[in-house]
Amino acid sequence: MTANTTDKTLETASEKTPVTLLGLGAMGTALARAWLAAGHPLTVWNRTPGRAAGVAAEGAKVAGSAAEAVAASTLVVVCLLDDSSVGEALADTDLAGKDLVNLTTTDPAQARARAEWARERGARYLDGGIMAVPPMIGVPEAGGYVFYSGAGELFEQHRETLAVPAGTTYVGEDAGHAALHDVALLSAMYGMFAGATHAFALIRKENIDPVAFAPLLGDWIKAMAGPSVTQTARQLATGEYGKDVVSSLAMQVAGTPTFLATAEQQGVSPELIGPYFALMRRCLTESSGEEDLTGVVDLLLR
Ligand code: FVH
């Protein structure tokens, strides 16, 4: 390395925003590696100190306590197990003047309460919901991103630094909205898993290769999911549930006995799809049947 290159490297490193990161679990370690690789001065703390050895070898400064770590940088990121671990870890720290970014998975009420808690301690607060698994962190082509909500000016000021580990999507000033987007998307994912589970169960006892079946199932889910969520969203936004209907609710409810009979024939429990069919039937009793499935959304609201 020439003297010139060394100077340049030092210069670039000193321009990068220093980051403090509390939590070096699977996700915290991936975040730490991404910021180190991008040249950010990084101070870390983990409850079990031994877990810091790997990132220390890559250039992170290891703080002896959470308070020392928080004191090291204005931008403080926490990625811990749950909301109570955040409260415990930050209990004896001075948050006055800090920009606290909480990437711990919580529910919306916890996120809002944590935002108020941070405000009372003199910190600006941004909540995050990570839509990625650790191997996707620091790999832009993997498509991972983080929902952020809370202090908009904090997000704008640190946008570049926050974009290092994964993409960023800011969803507004309400600190609970990142968690709500996160949970909404993950809930849809579990619904999709439930449908795929039922489909695999239907073919399980037959001479049908699940590996050959998988791309048929995956392609079908993809083909249906995009247009269907777009249509539902348009109808919810306009209130016109009968507009542009392709497959009427009446027709779909008429088909449900076929699905239930097939499950019975294949020796498969209807406990995954049965509740959804029950909601479809209830929706039909309250509508003309000319609409499609959007009315089920409203049936779920208490
Ligand atoms: N890993 C994943 O696939 C998902 C992807 C989506 C987002 N989640 C959320 O990210 C948070 C952290 O997850 P993680 O994968 O890093 O979790 P662990 O590997 O289990 O590490 C947990 C860290 O939390 C520390 N910790 C736990 N309790 C306390 C406490 N009372 N005080 C201080 N720290 C605490 C733990 O420390 P230690 O056990 O090593 O001492 C780890 O650093 C999480 O919200 C996911 O839902 C990840």
Number of domains: 2
Q: Tell me roughly what share of residues is in helical segments.
A: 40-55%
Task: Profile the largest sheet.
Answer: 8 strands, mixed
* Strand order across the largest sheet: 3-2-1-4-5-6-7-8
Q: Explain this structure to me?
A:
The chain is of the alpha/beta class. It folds into two domains: 3-173, Rossmann fold; 204-300, Orthogonal Bundle (N-(1-d-carboxylethyl)-l-norvaline Dehydrogenase, domain 2). Helices cover 53% and strands 12% of the residues. The chain has 13 helices and eight strands. The protein has an eight-stranded mixed sheet with strand order 3-2-1-4-5-6-7-8, with helices on both faces. β2, α3 and β3 (61-62) form a beta-alpha-beta unit. The N and C termini lie far apart (65 Å). The relative contact order is 0.08. The protein binds ligand FVH. Ligand FVH is lined by residues 23-28, 46-48, 51, 79-82, 85, 88-89, 104-105, 130, 133-134. Ligand FVH binds next to α2 and α5.
Task: Give the topology, please.
Blueprint: H1 3-15, E1 19-22, H2 26-37, E2 42-45, H3 53-57, E3 61-62, H4 66-72, E4 75-78, H5 83-90, E5 99-102, H6 108-120, E6 124-131, E7 145-150, H7 152-157, H8 159-162, E8 167-170, H9 177-203, H10 210-238, H11 249-265, H12 274-285, H13 295-300
Helix pairs in contact: 9-10, 11-12
